[in-house]
Structures are given as structure tokens and as C-alpha cells.
Amino acid sequence: MINVRRITSQYNFKTAKALGQNFLTDEFIMDAIVGGLQATKEDTVIEIGPGVGVLTGLAADQCGKLVAIELDDRLIPILHENLAGYFNVEIVHGDVLKTDLKQFAEKPVILGNLPYYITTPILMKFIEDKVLMKAAVFMVQKEVADKLTAAPGSSNYGVLAVIMQQFFNITYIVEAPPEAFMPAPKVTSQVVRLVPDEVRAASLKSGEDFIALVKKAFSQRRKTLANSMAGWKGMDKAAAAAWLSENGIDPQRRPESLSSEEFAKLSNSMFLI
Ligand code: SAM
Q1: Could you tell me if the CB of 70 is within 6 A of ligand 1?
Q2: How far apart, in whole angstroms, are the C-alpha atoms of residue 203 and residue 188?
Q3: How far is the C-alpha of 171 from the C-alpha of 257, rounded, in Å?
């Protein structure tokens, strides 16, 4: 097994805070993440930010092919050396946000102890780029996990919850305390598993419209929907209120009270206008 402490000291590697480098050292959590992938020899796994490769080797043992995308050029030779025995691993030097993920497999399994400074852009990339996937297992900040799974009406409920819950079923796998990493982050982390909800995603007439509508609705969280939706698709406040009522939504409601199904219904009705 690849050992983070041994490798960082052998290569005199100093972790970069700006790149979100908190390397996982807890073997129980590594096993839980890799088990959560449920990958088979038929699957291609794409790993986001392999670091020194602690999860990479374990996941590569389970899947047909593994593509690991790492931004930090200092880690590329370390990864090549430490994963030399893994003939099914391809190491890609690049920024995951600028990488076309569709080029590697039709329906990959995605893995990542994510760099926390870009968690939301990474999650949104899968939806915006329409990347098909079998499932994803991510380590995220506990606070972000709670936003992903929040129910309508709760304080964590917002744009991220509505959008992600429309496209994925999200479950918790294991919590990771700061001591599970080197260096230890200030916050607790959570491993989550995302499985695409193809029926709900397909129920949208336009994913782009849905995302734009949800962002607009929450742009003024404390205002009523009649107020926050004014200006949307050229509607003034009165037209927005009428449109909401026609779709069974009280215009006086606030965005955090709407379920993602209700946002989807609104978005589909707008698409006809
Ligand atoms: N997977 C390793 C582990 O579990 O120990 C490292 C996880 S560390 C939290 C995040 C990794 O993502 C780092 O290796 C970092 O260099 C890399 N990274 C940061 N920004 C990236 C980006 N835009 N694209 C690809 N990798 C990135």
C-alpha cells in the first residue's frame, strides 16, 4: 500500500494549501471510499486529484482502467514511480475543470478526495458538461455534504441541494475527522456517493433553463418568489406572480420552501413560453 508519510518525506514534498492538498492517511476510510465505488473490471474509473496515489492503487485493483487527473506537476513523477506496477493506470497532468471528461469513457465511475477550494465547480461540471457516469464517490467538507442533501425549508437548502438532487441520488458513506488527513484540515469531511437519477434528469425539458431558474430564485433568498423571479424571461412582477399561480405555486412563497420537483415543473413550463 502507498504510504503518504513515507512518500512525502522520501521526495521532500511540501503540500500546497492553495491546491487543497490534504492527503488521506486513514486506511479504514480509504477502504470505505474504494468499496463505495462498486467498480468492476468492466469499469473505467476517473480519479480527480490523485495526490501521491493512495486511493489510485486501491481503486486500480478493482477496475478495468483508471485515469488519474492531477494538476500539481510536482506530483506527476511521484505518481509515475509509485504506480509503475499498475499497467491499467493512466496519469493525466491537467486541471480537471479544463479537461473533457467524456474522452476517457462512455460511462465512467468517478472518484475524488476533492480539492475543497473547487468542490462546487467540479460538481457542477458534471451537470453542465452533461458527463454521463455510473456513480461517483467524493470526499467533501461535511458542510458541503449537508448542503447537497438538505431538505426544503432547512437552512442548508439552496441552489446546490436543488440542482444536485434533481440529477443525483446522494447517500453518505463515512465521515472523516481532520486526523484522517495529512496535514489535518480545520473541518470534518464526509464521503458521499452520487448515483445519477436518470428519470428525474430526463424529466427536464432544458437542464440549462432549470439551473438558471434555480439560481435566479435563490439570488434574493429572503424575498418572495414573485419578487425574485421578476425580470425572468422578460416578466414583470405581476406576470411572474401570475405564472407562479398558474403552476400551483403561491407567489408569496420563498425559494427555500420549494422542492426540486416544483422547480422542475416551473422550469418546464417556462420552456414553452
Ligand atoms: N487523492 C489524494 C488523497 O486522497 O490523499 C489527494 C487528495 S487532495 C484533497 C486533492 C488533490 O487534488 C491534490 O493532489 C491536488 O494537487 C489536486 N488538485 C487540486 N486542484 C486540482 C485541479 N484543478 N485539477 C486536478 N487536480 C487538482
Answers
A1: yes
A2: 35
A3: 22
